[in-house]
Amino acid sequence: MKGEENHDDGGAARLAGEVAAALRAQGLRLAVAESCSGGWIAKVCTDPAGASDWFCAGLVTYSNDAKRDVLGVAPQTLARHGAVSEAVVKEMTAGVLARIHAADVALAVSGVAGPGGGGPGKPVGCVWIAWQRRGRGAVARRFDFAGGRDAVRRAAVAEALRGVLRHAAA
């Protein structure tokens, strides 16, 4: 899916506010595992005062070693599918929920933000995002965003937050 909107910081802040309201209304707390977004999701979620009511952790697991050591992503999964894959982001959300006991909802992002690093089947702009609510299976989706590094990361942040509203806070 191509990123079709202008994903500016104001839009991310608005989406984070919607996520906050939805999670607060249900008494749920979010934790995130980020790779290509580099902590941007955690930043927009924690910008407003009072975020600790609904946001409990943000982990930047940029390298494969961090995905393995911090989140428990299986080395076999990384070797077989690569870091930018459905299997890896699903293991990332499971790892968040296994390690962050206060979290009810997890999201994970891994992608190729560019300008280099893309390859066959995983071009620059390819981003996998997964969402999981404790006690349920993870839902993952691939996005293929257009633009440079900043545009890809910005779009990933916005879609990750939209997905919390669609998949995890519903």
Characterize the structure shown.
By secondary structure, the protein is of the alpha/beta class. The protein has a single domain, classed as Alpha-Beta Complex (Maf protein). It is 44% helix and 19% strand. It has helices at 9-26, 40-46, 64-71, 75-81, 86-99, 149-168; strands at 30-34, 55-60, 105-111, 126-133, 139-144. A five-stranded mixed β-sheet has the order 2-1-3-4-5, with helices on both faces. α2 links the parallel β1 and β2 (55-60). α1 packs parallel to α6. The longest helix has 20 residues, at 149-168. The radius of gyration is 15 Å and the shape is globular.
Please specify the SSE layout and strand pairing:
Layout (H helix, E strand, L loop, with lengths): L8 H18 L3 E5 L5 H7 L8 E6 L3 H8 L3 H7 L4 H14 L5 E7 L14 E8 L5 E6 L4 H20 L2
Parallel strand pairs: 1-2, 1-3
Antiparallel strand pairs: 3-4, 4-5
Notable features of this structure?
single chain; 170 residues; alpha/beta; 5 strands; globular
Portion of residues in beta strands equals: 15-25%
Shape descriptor: globular
What summary fits the major beta sheet?
5 strands, mixed
Widest sheet, order of strands: 2-1-3-4-5
Let me know the number of strands.
5
The CATH architecture category equals: Alpha-Beta Complex
**Class by helix and strand content?**
alpha/beta
From the N-terminal CA to the C-terminal CA, the straight-line distance is 22 Å
Given the structure, what is the number of helices? 6
Rg of Cα set: 15 Å
Q: How many domains?
A: 1
